[in-house]
């Protein structure tokens, strides 16, 4: 019996140091540190980084609200009751909490807060602060995705100053981990000397009062921000923190575009470049400093699920509401040509919303999947009950011409015919749409989009590429005011409530939600409910496979590509642990686990077994 199952079945809840959604935690109660850190890593030095995302400026220190652009690195300041490990798919070890109790009926989880836990102002972290954090994040003053993510948590109840109980709408194995992962901040954040409070959604440059290892040191013009390690950080000796947070200072410099960012790296203005563009890695991340060894390039393997990255079609637009039209657009992307000509054959085509994991649907549906799909057979494409769709291929014997002929037939079935030099519907309206991107990444992406536009022209479709400032771009995405755009949906090893915000019908009408596609499907909603309420790993996999089949056969996204390694260029003198994590983002790994000094040679990680 798994640890969590045992707890749920026990007549009385027992306090434990860690929980796992399925199975048991990897690390024992007396563990000293995670396997993938260097417990003897030296402390010191300043790490200088560039834009970690598309933002080119910031105007607030509050990462939890919809309006404005948050400064990079704010996650260095916020902690949660528990923290997962990077070599397990779904575990939670005490961070702010030092024990966890799951109720026998699974309808609540109680956390005891470590009495040593302190906020940056010296105040103890209390149950009242945890309750305040949940209530605030679920309120209209926070970005709407938090209300969706934490929607299954009915309330937080203060048991005593150091004990908080989260109560749930229904039994759900993910919820204890979800509750533990909620960021916690002080009730005093935004409070004025006279006792009045700045509204949470109005907080801008008021420094957060949180419990993390770093503090804001200084910032300038919304383009540079520096953090310093808190000398009084309360959690430095916790097993989940040993070997981490090794830099005295972490500085972010924001550049106006990717070209400026790359040239600044070559000039020595910052220390680490995580490269997401294959062409840059081969052709542009080169030069005298690379030749001399002053700058070093390494590829670090990872086992993350890919997530979905692709051209998202906004189905709120009448133009994209017919699945035959969406499939036709998918047929117009020539990935094999792009991989040869632009990507130096460094990428693999994405063919699932959960590629590179066992969560990807393969073969014919299993009995468990059919149990979820059959009730919706009348509303689903019959193809859902067969093999997952294969992405178009132009390698012989395939060809772009054959794919475009198939696309033309689909468009004709959907009522689009070529006449008067354009593809037109029955009303005579031409097939035209806009592909939106932000100006920071447009230079590298425009050649890719140009090939798609060229292929669409052969079908009589006019697509236009528009690049805008990231702030404008994000505002349009939040309001779902776009035709098509490139989105990367964050990868997950254990899908859960975030999928409801990404694909649920309610989220489709919620401004700022992750359901940018606009999916409204009772079948998808039912499968999502089964997914978040799965009681075994097998049930979770069945639900995820069923979801993957429905989404892929819906052709909501023109899938792009992924790499199974992180490409990192860095200054000589930086070092990293010899054992790599299994599931990790490059930027977070660098800020939390690297150091200045002699490197330990990395050991290859074993592919995860399930």
Could you explain how this protein is built, in words?
This protein has 610 residues and is of the alpha+beta class. The protein folds into 2 domains: 3-252, Periplasmic binding protein-like II (D-Maltodextrin-Binding Protein, domain 2); 309-562, Dipeptide-binding Protein, Domain 3 (Dipeptide-binding Protein, domain 3, Roll). It is 27% helix and 20% strand. It has 18 helices and 27 strands. It has a 5-stranded mixed beta sheet with strand order 21-20-22-16-23, with helices on both faces. Strands 2-13-12-11 form a 4-stranded mixed beta sheet, with no helix packed on it. Strand 8 and strand 9 form a beta hairpin. Helix 8 (323-331) packs antiparallel against helix 11 (400-413), helix 10 packs across helix 17 (537-554) and helix 16 (522-532) runs antiparallel to helix 17. The longest helix is centred in the last third of the chain and has 19 residues, at 439-457. It is globular, with a radius of gyration of 25 Å. The protein starts with a helix and ends in a 14-residue tail after the last strand. The model is unreliable at 1-11 (pLDDT under 50). This is Solute-binding protein family 5 domain-containing protein. InterPro entries: Peptide/Ni-bd, SBP_5, SBP_5_dom. GO terms for molecular function: peptide transmembrane transporter activity. Residues 94-507 form the Solute-binding protein family domain.
